[in-house]
Amino acid sequence: MAQRSEDYRNSVAFVTHTRDYRSGDLLPALARCGFTTTERPHDRETGRLLKQFEPDLVVLAIDPRNSADVDLVGAMARESDAMVMVLAPGPHALGMATALNAGADVCVRDTDGAELIAAQVGALARRRHDPRNDDAKPDDEDTVITVRDLTLDFDRCQVVRDEERVPLTPTEFKILAHLARNAGKVVSPVEILRAVQEYTYSEREAQEIVKVYIRRIRRKIEQDPAAPNYIVNVRGFGYMLERRAAPRAAEEQQAA
Fold this sequence. Notes:
single chain, Rossmann fold, Arc Repressor Mutant, subunit A, 5-stranded parallel sheet, 4-stranded antiparallel sheet, globular, disordered N terminus
């Protein structure tokens, strides 16, 4: 059951844009979820205002086909603890993947329409409101899962490898947690996104988006991301968190 909008009445959304966008779809969606919203074009003051408002959600209406806009996504992801949502133009899966690769937690499109944008904003808000109550926690009430030298702590929503904390975003943690719950099993990209987001992607979109997230997670947990031995790709089927220390035969896997 969706939570009522007043559950987020103390939440703040910071919206900035480098292009014209459908504010008539986005801003009512934020209000419907109970956000207090500050909206302004991106300029030199954006960074200062971001620190001043300390928002729960940052929304960037940008064009990920422009390198400067992609750099802005990365800067926002580094400078804020907020969830970062990108609103991109048109039905361009490559642009969505580029935004995610730059550091966005989720990417939606102008063409998705008000209802889907509202649903995704609400999903982000619920995960931000209490990340311990989401699907990342196993059904059998285990609070810690260990796979080789990776330890996932669901109470703290954190991952430790070799006694060092791995700095994962909430969405990255949820994806790794889903793979950990299914360690040794292949999980399709569509299933991965269905488990961590309340948004339905086509199979092609899911493949592109999950590939970006897996690449980001590998950079943080693998000793050699180019030759992964934790998260392996089983060609044509999906991804698996490998429980065995010895790598599988090369013909059984292919890096994303």
